[in-house]
Protein: Alpha/beta hydrolase
Amino acid sequence: MTNYPISPYFKRINRKMPYSKPLFRLAGPVQKLLLRCIPLDQALTANQLLLAGFQSLPIPATLFSPKSGSGLLPCLLLFHGGGFGYRAAPYHKKLAMLYARETGCKVLFPDYHLLPSYSYPAAKEDALCCYRFLASSGSQFGIDPHRILVAGDSAGAVLATYVVGADWKELPPPKGQMLLYPVLDAAQNTDSIRRYQDTPMWNSKNNAKMWNWYLDGTSPLEHQAASPMTAPLPSKIPPTYLETAEFDCLHDEGLLYAQRLKQYGGYVTLYETKGTIHGYDFCLNSPITQQSIRHRIHFLKKTL
Structure:
């Protein structure tokens, strides 16, 4: 593996992440157990929900709510990353709770359908169903349907863009989107894709496998709709926060997507982190991660 000048704060994750279908199946139960071991933040309550998703299959979801909140509260719909194959990691749950505590909003954290059993459009349909639930029935859970923001890291960011790009007709559209080191371009034809073939945590080789498996059996039209870089944009683009990692094969497509949103009239806050690798949120207590979290919290408070 190339010796990249990565910040020493991320030494503990300076390694390749295995990415294979057998491992998805093996890791799933372990990841589920690890999530259960993360204690609930004492400032929050948590409701376990079952939502109807792709082909009416159930989507387990956790709704985190601030104990101090009253009336209808804004809500963050948060999709975890994991290359469409891995479940949420403990740091994803910790971040979901942190966002709820620090912003005073509710956070819906769904466990959407994954590879290898479910390829496109399963996760997309799950994401749309989650938003539809919040916008149409969320008031029953103390959620203001006019103040919903979608967010995701890595592959989870793709799902956030699907929600923003959908035609919600009679339902209020998302208030904004927060995309963290996002997966955005199935074409995979940027300088960073070519440059970072062996970077820690994620690289262009894993990225190619991910898109091949995720889009398996899709038509050219579905392929275009599945890739945020080529999918249609909404007539009105909501405020966007986009964060990139420096030594990440996805870095350049993040910049290009930010440019695309701006060209179509969107307001974009772009934050390019330095010394970072994909998934650097894993090291939650590092100064670099903490600074990024402050930027995110500021955007969420301002937008919601």
